UniProtKB/TrEMBL annotation, chain A:
Keywords: Membrane, Transmembrane, Transmembrane helix
NCBIfam families the record matches: ccoS
Protein name as annotated: Cytochrome oxidase maturation protein
Keyword Calcium: no
InterPro entries: Cyt_oxidase_maturation_cbb3
Organism: Bradyrhizobium nanningense
Any single Pfam family the record assigns to this protein: FixS
PANTHER family per UniProt: FIXS PROTEIN (PTHR41532:SF1)
Transmembrane intervals: 6-26
Amino acid sequence: MEILVILVPLALMLGGAGLVAFLWSLRSGQYDDLDGAAWRAIADDEPPQEAPAKR
Amino acid sequence: MQVTRDFSHYVRDAGEGLRHIDLAVEGVHCAGCMAKIERGLSAIPDVTLARVNLTDRRVALEWKAGTLDPGRFIDRLEELGYKAYPFETESAEVAEVAESRFLLRCLGVAAFATMNVMMLSIPVWSGNVSDMLPEQRDFFHWLSALIALPAAAYAGQPFFRSAWRALSAKTTNMDVPISIGVILALGMSVVETIHHAEHAYFDAAIMLLTFLLVGRFLDQNMRRRTRAVAGNLAALKAETAAKFIGPDEISQVPVAAINPGDIVLLRPGERCAVDGTVIEGRSEIDQSLITGETLYVTAEQGTPVYAGSMNISGSLRVRVSAASEATLLAEITRLLDNALQARSRYMRLADRASRLYAPVVHATALLTILGWVLAGASWHDAIVTGVAVLIITCPCALGLAIPTVQTVASGAMFKAGVLLNAGDAIERLAEADHVIFDKTGTLTLPELEVMNAAAIPADIFELAGRLALSSHHPVAAAVAQAAGAKSPILSAVEEAGQGVRATIDGIELRLGRPSFCGAETLVGSAALDPEASIVAFSKGSDKFILSVRQGLRPDAKAVIAALKARNIGIEILSGDREPAVKAAAHALDIPEWRAGVTPADKIVRIEELKRRGAKVLMVGDGMNDAPSLAAAHVSMSPISAAHLSQATADLVFLGRPLAPVVAAIDASRKALHLMRQNLWLAIGYNVLAVPVAISGVVTPLIAAAAMSGSSILVMLNSLRARGASREIV
């Protein structure tokens, strides 16, 4: 049962990492446009010569 | 005079020498539009960011500060085939967005905690029947507490705050039993853990918060989305005014940038976007959006004009006044305040349910404790059982019963062209059994139409349309639009107050007053229609009469029939003259109508109906309807309505047809039915679970399973609201 000493903190850390990732994605506005994001995933990339310099 | 467009009001400084503007865009539906717009705008030199938000139908733009004029983005989008206009986020929308994000953050925290506590609970549940050591169980309980307590303190904020507000106001709402349940469950679990007891309810408490936050977030998201659409529609109306920035220089500025005391120019055919007083000029104005009266009013120096009035014949200079100065508005505002106060007394279904629910549940828990003590149990065991009753009856399904239906139903209404302004509008609309329509702009379309177009030879009509393009008069504009005219006749001359004339191939064409075209004799019978404006068209010695008026909405008759079929009472209350109202009532087969009604009279009539027990749905668009919209049980406005009315109405419908009124009633009736069904499901579950809890055999496993089972059942039932509003009329 000594394995708990490793497993429990590990599980909590992984869960915590998931939470931090969620909060970060929320803060960076990734939930602001769910409809658009769904389409962007399958949209073609812009041809490089057309693309102007973006930030 | 030089006219410039000035959008500087909307431009923000984004730092690092960049400027930022948000545009509302019409007609963006798919990935194709998104790519087209982003590429089209990025191709403009100096643009550093062009990003479409497909959910809100908006574009965010950033560019290097310098020579680039924001007007160019709008022109570029127009070339691409999209109507766009700068957009300023209202403070109400900012608050909704912030609230929505906060709830999502709470939901994330609660979901994280639920998953981790569950991970720790499952070994405990299985360990209770196998060979888990008490020390190990305590360790797992302490770990659960470590996760659940801070998470509940954070994620429970929306409920705790709302419950505290309700208690401070000496009322109760659904959040009071929720908060009490969660706090007691956590408190008892901590005490039990300290005493090395077998059962702790950390998992149930935090799972309860997660489920409830799902419901809360859905509800909030629906409101945020409605608010965004309404904001876009307001922006796309592109209300501007021609403001004098010098004695002879005019700038076309957005209404938001106009201050009291400014002087604006109101040209013929323009709709006034501000309230003010005429200081120079003479014209006729159409105030039908304000008073419902379709007869034109003469405006001269000193006449007050209101936002929404249409200028007909001459140019006016208007000094902008603060809204409260005008007497008509002050009267309407006073009536409106009274009516709104009365309406806020309506109690939502959820609150009514919780008002019954909370005392029953708390009394049951108390009786359980006393009962067990009398039966000889120790105080500790009795209290544990009492808290178990509270936990298992905690209104998890009850909290989801209404928001889930509301979210699904509002989505269905959205597709039928109806936006919800008020959260409880669905419940109130479902109860409506009497509909009062305003006439002008509600039963009729706000735009003018040529009624006898079919009776005129097509080539003559087209010619009249082309000639009409040269005039600013709204009646002429209606003729031009009806004829689909594109190319104006270049040599056309407008004679103020008379009409337009031109000469083609030696034949003189005239369009205007019958006397101007020498067609008085033809007018005779056409003048019988009290609402129509008669214009004449002459080509040489051939003379024609055009009858222009606001037509009824295309499906008005079918909608009235559909309402009658649903056993809903119908009447017309209009501020317009008697003959005009009578004609409309006759055409639509509505026996009950009143004409020349003032805003105060409309309220009197609504109060009278209320006393008789009727639940009134008021459908109106004019500013004069605003107080009665607020006084009615529930209210609807077309999107073309005056600002004040639109803000007051519970629901707003889009487009030309009247069908959304029936669609909304049907959808809301179905939704209310489902809400009631959900409440009964939740209550039925409690009836089954409470005896188990009272008997003291509930384990945390049973509590968790029952709670999630009933919540999922309620959510699935809510999805049935999706099918609403298929067949409309």
